[in-house]
């Protein structure tokens, strides 16, 4: 689902969902595109979520702030908002300090053993098979480093503050044990 107030973006999206067909010229495709269509059910869910988007984003921002506050002082960076931006916190992320990189998987296992789901960062695009021919695996050292040190923490808007603090306490316990 795309929401925009830009006619240019909407027109481009319509063309992309319509296999790149040029309006007014039947079966003429001037860009690579696919037959992307959203079902009515998916559209209805999207519209319903848009009606709640402000509430969802506020809660996700509140959760991120709890993580930032509770995890302060640990050997990590908590995903933060840059000046002049407004972060929706689709994911709340931590990046372990470099000297603790070897502990990422251990921390994730520790969380899992305490019934807390976490996810590693995505692999850098340039390391994926379909793109690896475009760049050396070492061409982007920051993205490589972040992908090895990053963890996405639970941030579902339905988490209560106490649950987020419990996750933080579990992370603190891990660092107290290593």
Written account of the structure:
The protein has about 180 residues and is of the alpha+beta class. The chain folds into two domains: about 1-35, no CATH class; about 55-175, Aspartate Aminotransferase, domain 1 (Alpha-Beta Complex), CATH 3.90.1150. It is built from five helices and four strands; from the N terminus they run ααββαβαβα. The protein has a four-stranded antiparallel β-sheet with strand order 1-2-4-3. The model has no long low-confidence stretch (mean pLDDT about 95).
Q: What's the count of strands?
A: 4
CATH architecture of the largest domain: Alpha-Beta Complex
* Number of separate structural domains: 2
Structural class: alpha+beta
Q: Please indicate the percent range of residues in DSSP E strands (runs of 2 or more).
A: 5-15%
Given as residue ranges, the uncertain stretches (5+ residues, pLDDT < 50) are: none
- CATH top level of the largest domain is Alpha Beta
Percent range of helical residues? 40-55%
For the report, how would you describe the main beta sheet?
A: 4 strands, antiparallel
Order of helices and strands: HHEEHEHEH
Described by the principal axes of the CA atoms, the overall outline is globular
Going across the biggest sheet, name each strand in turn. Answer: 1-2-4-3
Helix segment count?
5
CATH superfamily label of the largest domain: Aspartate Aminotransferase, domain 1
Query: What is the radius of gyration computed over CA atoms, rounded to a whole number of angstroms?
Result: 21 Å
| CATH topology (level 3) name of the largest domain | Aspartate Aminotransferase, domain 1
- Overall mean pLDDT: 94
Through-space gap between termini = 44 Å
